[in-house]
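Blinded run. Sample ID left blank on purpose so nobody reads anything into the name before looking at the predicted structure. Input follows.
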Amino acid sequence: MSVLSEFKAFAVKGNVVDMAVGIIIGAAFGKIVSSFVGDVVMPPIGLLIGGVDFSALAITLKAADGNVPAVVLAYGKFIQSCIDFIIVAFAIFMGVKAINRLKREEAVAPSVPPVPTKEEELLGEIRDLLKARADKP
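Blinded prediction complete.
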């Protein structure tokens, strides 16, 4: 099997396509969450703390010197990224929890016992006749 045909077989598998769709949707979801945290959640938190803009929180380790830019430790962006992660993780947790609940409900649903086939009915009748014959003295 050639490398090209192996790659084609791999790429068109359902799992690979599903994974690609998931990654694309995940990237879009990440942008939405980052905007939500940066534009909706952090401003009120910053206001409650005293008008702090988290994205601007930083410590200058070395000031700019001529053509060399300043060395800055931007811990505010790190705090914002941590909050992004917590929100994304919570949203994924809630989604997985909902899917697991649906799977449990599906598993708990009573299944209808299978209807015996004609062969099974005939074999049952033969068994009963043989048992009745064996019981006679």
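Unblinding after everyone has recorded impressions. Residues 19 and 25 are 10 Å apart (CA to CA).
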